[in-house]
Amino acid sequence: MDTPMSNFHFRLLSLGYKIRDLLESRESILEEVNIPPGYHVLDFGCGPGSYIPPLSTMVGKSGKIYALDIHPLAVESVNKMIDEKSLTNVETILSGRDTHLPDECIDMILLYDIYHSFSDPDAILHELHRVLSPEGILSFSDHHLQEDEIITSLTGKQMFRLVKKGKKTFIFKKGKS
User: What is the DSSP string of 76-142?
Assistant: First the structure.
């Protein structure tokens, strides 16, 4: 996605996420990923921030969460959450592709239910590869894609290699550039 969806669509999607989160907590998905304290995590395409509170707790005071989204309402929503919950380890980034982060500074990237909407997925994968640390993890989920599409898309250029398939996520490690 190169441009943000309409505000109406974003608000409708956010409502759907609230209902989804009541049916299945985001913690149950994050437990599959095993995020230790001190990690620096990039939630790429964070939306209204469903994963932010549990991530903030998991990484603790020594960790850092970067919540990136192209939609201004998403960033506004996460900023409101930061203020309301006094989350001191979360920073928002309003951007479509460029993270504006230093090379190899991220321990884990969450790429959840957004990949299918990218018009230039290779450019985004290059950016994610750039910011991911050498031993970093890319946690991926997109219910719009079949398993073979996911694996082929992420491993095709050898930037990432599949190391584990969980119940809800695929875990990739950084490969060659």
Answer: HHHHHHHHHHT-TTEEEEE-SS---PPTT-EEEEEEES-GGG-SSHHHHHHHHHHHEEEEEEEEEE-
Report pTM.
0.91
Residue found under tokens 């001190």: 38
Torsion-angle region of 158 (φ positive above 0: left; ψ -120 to 50: alpha; else: beta): left
Characterize the bridge pairing of strands 64-69 and 40-44.
parallel
Enumerate the domain spans of the chain: 7-174
Q: What fold does the segment set 7-174 form as a domain?
A: Rossmann fold (3.40.50)
pLDDT digit string (tens) for 112-159? 989 988 989 999 999 999 999 999 999 999 988 899 999 999 998 899
